[in-house]
Amino acid sequence: MLWFLCIFFFATTVWLFLQIKRARQLMSDLKDSVHAQRRFLPEPSSATVSWNELNELIGETNDFVERHRLYAEENTGYSKQIESMLRAVQEVLVIFDGNRVIEFASRTAEEVFHSGRSMKGLRVDTSMRSLALLEFLEKYDNDSLDGDNQLSYDHAGKTYWFEASCTQVRSIVEPRQMSSFLVLHDITNLKNIEVMRREFVANVSHELRTPLTIIKGFGETLVEDHEDLPIEMRARYLNKVLNNAERLHVLVEDLLCLSRLESKTETFDLVTQPLHGLLADVSEDYQSRLESGQEIVIDCEDTLPAVPFDRFRINQVLDNLIANVFRYAPEFTTLTIGAHYDEASNMVVCSISDDGPGIPAEDLNHLFERFYRVDKGRSQERGGTGLGLSIVKHIVQMHQGSVSAESEEGAWTKISFTLPCAKSSEKVTD
What is the pTM of this model? Predict the structure, then answer.
């Protein structure tokens, strides 16, 4: 009997030992499955599982692992979606850690600061080489930011202007840590517009000052010395006042016209029609101004296609260009009004050319700027406002065309503009 009890006790101990060992192995495997985020699949006939009644625990654990895996996939997909959206944003977006190592950069940031190459893993100081930006970040670190957060950055010969802001966000790499989220809003166009506005105000002030000073001076003389001035002197002074008043009137009208064109409030009556008639009418208007030895020639293709255009506005364009020839190249012998079809662009190219003194090469790129004059002294004498070619450019652009200038100093000048041809479905008006 004693031997039987000893054998039973020994067998029971061995069995318990094996069960405990198997249970430990089972728990270890279960732990590994949780860490690996995969389902635990024990053998269905496992006595250990049945004996320890761990089926329910394993089932709950597998459900937890599955839910966690789905959540991780959804979260990863959501994070990638957010990252893709942020990369596509037109602003400069950069996320960097406490050591200023970049964790994320938008595509715009990489294009502006790193020639389109990836910035992830680089330091802000080395990849975004801007002293103004580094000073801004130093102020941000020291909580000493003031109201002016605008900074400039020079790259590839171009100056960018940004409005900067920075805030704390959860780190992308280590969620338990905080990173800095830098946003640079591009205000380059606003800065350029501001510069243009200041220049425009300065130019307008200058243009208005001269005729106003003349009117004021001669007006005061006529009032104060009215009785002492000879009649012919009064007439001459009054003529000066009248001429400068007319100059002011023309300048104001040109400014209003340019303002309407630039604000896109002007409506055009586009009618598909031939150009031949308009070119002939404009030529006839200037025949009386020709001097001996001068002529106006129309060089227009007979098969020129019809063009949709506002007759009044294109007449204004031609008037401005021809008047400039009479004003700035009065010694010309031949003024040519040309028009031909350019098949490659499906455009009609119109041009006004003369054999006058020409324009220096360095001035050609500035001809269509407001108030730009090639010879400022002579232009003032001849009464130009400096806005004519700028008006020409805006009218042509609103017809979906373009303007250009060519010249050889001392030989000739040619100003051209293009107009898109009519579509086949558009009705032609004679």
Answer: 0.58
Residue 6 token pair: 């000893």
Domain range list for the chain: 32-82, 89-186, 202-262, 271-420
Residue 1 has pLDDT above 70, yes or no: no
Q: Residue type for 374, please? A: V
The mean-pLDDT minimum among 17-26, 110-119, 144-153, 233-242 falls in 17-26
Select the more confidently predicted residue: 429 or 187. 187
Backbone torsions φ then ψ of 147, nearest 5 degrees: -75, -25
CATH tag, 202-262: 1.10.287.130
**Contact between residue 331 and residue 290 where contact means Cβ atoms under 8 Å apart:** no
If DSSP states are collapsed to H, E and C, what string results for 162-218?
Answer: EEEEEEEEECCCCCCCEEEEEEEEECHHHHHHHHHHHHHHHHHHHHHHHHHHHHHHH
* Residues in contact with 392: Cβ distance below 8 Å, sequence separation at least 6, in sequence order: 317, 320, 321, 368, 403, 417
- Spell out the CATH class of 89-186: alpha beta
For residues 166 and 183, is the Cβ–Cβ distance under 8 A? Answer: yes
3-state SS class at 320: helix
